[in-house]
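User: I want to check something. If I give you two sequences, will you return the structure for each one separately, not as a complex?

Assistant: Yes, each is folded on its own. Here is the first sequence with its structure:
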Amino acid sequence: MGKARNNIAATVRRVLRKRPRLVWYAVACGFALAVVLAVVRGCGGGAPKLTAIPPPTEEEKGDVLVTGYCSCGECCGWRRSWLGLGPAVYTYGPMKGRRKKVGVTARGTVAKHGTVAADPKVFPFGTRLKIPGYGMGVVEDVGGAINGRHIDVWFASHEEARLWGRRNLKVVPLP
């Protein structure tokens, strides 16, 4: 056992002496992989527990279907290429396989609270909406499943969007 250990140590010393770039490359790759895994899995600490969003009152109920979405791949139809480490690409539709800018709306703005996806034939881009239980929103996005009197309101996390669910509300367009 002692001789094998000495052979391994000698091999390591030889590689360190002859190929220092290779060693630094391996260390950098290991560090980069650790960072990527920490981001993908979450860095601990955890988010605070979300509480259920209260259902709409009778006077808030209306004829517009309002659903929640976030910037995740499940909500927006994208995935990471190259074993989950590459750039985001569309998973379906006419843009399938092409790169996607995650968190960027069809209008080119960054999605944030107040971003609404709608059918442009019903609510054109730039339309300001008052959405009961959500607040004010501006139509800046579209979606493959958003047709007619159906809108999607943006949330920061998938859990918040899931808790919002599907609601039929009185959505008021503002001037």
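And separately, the second sequence with its own structure:
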Amino acid sequence: MDQNSDQTTMFPPTSSRRSFLRKAGAIGLAAGAAGALGAPLVADAATRAAHGADASSSLVLWTFVDTHARWFKRRGAEYQKTHPGFSLTVNQYPNPPYKQKLLTVLETGVDAPDLCDVEQGMFGSFLQGTVPFVPLEHRLISGGYLNKLVPTREALYTWNGHIYGVEHALTPVVLYYRADYFKKYGIKPSDLATWDDFIAAGKTLKKHGVYMLATDYSYFETLLRQRGSDIFNAKGALTADSPLAVNTIEWLMGLQTTHDIAKPAASYSIFAPQAWAELQKGTFATQIGADWWAGFLTDNAATLAGKWRAMPLPVWANDAVKRPTSCTGGTGLCIPVTTSKQSLAWDFAQFCLLTKTGTVEAFQMIDLFPPFIPSWSDTALHTPNAYMGGQDLGSLFSEIGRKVPAEYQSPYRADFETFTAADSPILLQGKISPATWLKKEADKIRGEMKK
């Protein structure tokens, strides 16, 4: 084990099918049989499991998020109370090196974990060749969990008909808005029913020197998913420059070029320190973000406490589906095929992510709204948010939660994200038309697919 990891071991105390397939078909989970279990590593792992699992009651879990690490340790301590002899070692490694480290140990089988967090953006990197994770769909079906989870969230960890991870977070996207600006300039949240209304309100605010939005490329994918599409479809085919995608990115860029109610985020990223500084100056009236964005606002824009609220996304007036939300981000918990303790790993995964107690505790410690529907009624998820002026964000997320769209995977998704992040400044600077830019980015992926 690396000595540089945040490694904590909990030592044991001295004493002691049908409904799934309907949903799967709807989001592309049953796209075909896998037939991907022929590689030597996976075959060896399957043989080990078939001839008897390791009797040890210890697990090693990897993550790249400090809040996840603390929560897993807490869950391990609770699990230990009813499972004498159990111990959990949590290793936290920095990201982005985490992905390559995990890829390496899963390829060699040496010092690989029994459970691991895999961020949705990196998951596609594990789909090149044999998938190194245990398929979980039969366990999810037999446990009755697919009726308790928002099914679209499992699309993130689905490939060739198999589900390889359990999602931590619902990540419902909402519109965060400056309530003080809206009140001052006579704008009500109910006025923003459609994106056309959003533009109209933005023009009102611009008359007073306030931009409606800081333009960021990442909004394109979020808005595209709101419209029922994505950069890849359920079968992994590239759809990043489809007519709907082109229309969506042209609309986004039109906020600054046609309507003059938006301008690029400082340093061309809403995550940049310069962008946060500009936000705190009062330059922008809204932000598009998932549930976790409320925490980002709290941490990075403390001077604006009490001034922000959240509402459902405006809908697309001409789209057949009027979806008031989208999704962005996510992390799945996976079981590597290299572990001989699949049953224990699955049992602990259930204890963490498929119980009310575990998911409510995760919300309290990590501030991520769970995709586990039975937890939504728990009062802990409806605590007034002081930063958001006492708003019950849990009620909003519950209201729109079942409408969160799917986000699909591909072995090339990570490449697309890398290319577009590097090339987004020229788009935001207006040096290239949105349609031309998007086609160039998509063509890069087509080139990768031909290799």
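Because they were folded independently, the notes below concern the second chain alone. Residues 66-82 form the longest helix (17 residues). The domain at 6-169+329-375 is CATH 3.40.190.10 (D-Maltodextrin-Binding Protein; domain 2).
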